[in-house]
Each structure stands twice: as C-alpha cells, then as structure tokens.
Design a protein that fits this description.
Length: 381
Amino acid sequence: MKTRTTVVAVAVGASAVVAGLYGWSRMTSPKPVAETQRPSATAPAGAIPISISSPVPTELNQGNGGAPSATMQQAAAFAWQEFIALNWPAVKQTGGVVNNAFVQQRDVADSNCKFSDPNCDDRPLVWETFRGKVEIFPGNGNPPGFPSVAQGDDSYGYDALPAYNYSSPVSPCNQPSPTASPTPVPSFINLDETDQITLDSMFAGIAPAQDPDKINTSPQLIRFLAKANRVEYTYVASPGAQAAWWLGPPVIPATQTYLATNQKSPTAGGHDLVSLRFGTIEIKAGWRVLNSAEIASKRFKTATARYYENQNNPCYNESTFGLVSLHIIQKTQSAPYFIYATFEQADNIMTAPTANASPTPVEDVDGNIVKLPPCRADQTA
C-alpha cells in the first residue's frame, strides 16, 4: 500500500459528514491492550518517526495546535500509524463471549501478534472487525447482538459475530446442504457496494474477464465495503435520551438547520443533534478478484469476502478477493471534520501490456508519476 500524495487533513463541510452518515440509514472505544512495538530505524533529519505499534493514534499534532497546525509530514506519519495499528491482527473472534463471560473482541489488537505476523493469519485484522454499515443500521430488525451478548456488555452487542440483515432476506447463491453443520459464520468482509456513491463503477481490466467457476458474473468489478468502529456504533445504538437517533425524524432537520446557521459540527456526542463522538473511525475499502500472476506475487492482502449477485433474486457468494484501496477517517478533538487518509495497493495503476513490453507501474511508491501511459488513438494529451 502507498499513500496518495501523502495524507491530507481536510476540513470538509460538516453537512457532508452528516449526509454520508444518513446515507447508511436503514439499508465506540476498546479496552486498552498491551503495546506491541519495535523501534523504527533511525529517521532522516526532519522526518517524523513512525513506530510499528498496535495502539491507534487519537490526535494529530497533539499539544502543538492539533490538526489545523499540522505539517504534511505530521499528517503522513499520523496516517501511517493509523494504517499500522488498524492492520494489526485482531484477537480471535468468538462473539464477545469467553467462558460465558463478556469480553471485548472487535477493534482489539492481539498483543501476542506482531504486525503482518504469519502466525496470526487465522484471524481478521483490527479494521476488518469493525461493524459493517448494515450491522449498524440493519434493514430489518435490531443490530446483531443488540442489546447485549452477555452480562456486563456495555457496547450494545457490538462484539457479536457478523450478521447482515437487509430489508429483504438474502440467501446464498448455492444453497448449503440442510444438514450442514455448524452453520458457516459470515465473512467480516461484506462487499455490498458496487459503485462510488452511485456516481460510477470501477473495473480492473487486468482481472480475469470471466470466472472459470461461472459463479462471479462480473469478476473485473471493484467492490466496496463501509465500516465503523465501536465508538460510532455505541453512539448510534445507545437507547433513549442517550442518543439523538431515538428522537426520530425531527433530529434531521434540526441538525441541518444547525449546520447551515453555524457552519460547524454540533457538540460531539450530543443528544438533540447528530454529531458523532470523538474517536469515531470509519473505513471504506475496495476489493477485487486477482489474476493468477497477482496471486503468485503475494503482493496483495487477500481475504475471503462475501459479495452479491443480482440476477433474478439477489443472493451472495463468498470467495477470495484482493485489497486494492483503503480509506481511513477519524474524528478527533482538533479535527471534528475528520482526518482523511487514503491508501492504495502499489500495483493499482499499470500501463497496458504490449507485444514488446510488460505492464509497468505508472507511479512510484510515493505517488510520483514515472511512466505515463500512451494516449488512445482519439487523444492528444
């Protein structure tokens, strides 16, 4: 993965944040863990040191003016610290219950694992355990695990294993045997988006044009997911007077009026207006099918992912996909408009192969253009 033009701490319209949040509608901090860290190599003069450690950073340029005063180098270092921590192996997931007692598991790094530890490949990464949007705003019924998975659960069932409840039930495309046991646990990777906020769809020409198993009808399509952490979920799920969501539709125009009048976010975690709590992290990730050479290269993060087919009656399959992009946004006290960090897989943009040349990366690891692709016949620049 590489950052796109380092990382930008951008002040966006707060109304866009609320609009995006409500776009999820109807379709949280973990206990601290022991720090697992190894020292970074000596950094060049002026560089910001980055540690290989599991705690997620909670503020940019803390104590020195926060995000508004941060340099691009500080923003980039903050983004990489987020990336490393959120891509740490998570503790094993058992639905938040161990020996009949509640324990936080989602969002929690395993302090016995190292970053990219091959001995911990049997569990998801920290960000992968965040709740998918339909686990926060189910299309039908309550979120999975709500209101609790066991006595002492103060996160409204957040640690329950994944369940994806849409407004209408979605069955597997290939129905399992009625005698299959145990019931398969859904993948934490739920690719239920196929476009960019309805504006466009993206395709990877380098991916197989057809699925040899004739299951995936669009193997070149890049599919997406959206997730959020415990901080956001508990704000949404907390009942009664604790959360604005339970006040019903009037909270929407009230929040819109506040934003238009004040041009800033309401008080974080407020009850009468929608404003996510500090520490909220949201994730968007793009995944696609890899070709045989990409699989053999081992340059992609891969995982079993659930994806959907829409011919006739909607249904889902699960198969191996490769991660090609990752957006991380976090709301901090100095950046209530969120800090945005974008990463992409290093081989995302390649020149087209020719009779005399293999595909070549268009950009280097820092995002600098090193090889412009040739123009089409109908283009001059």
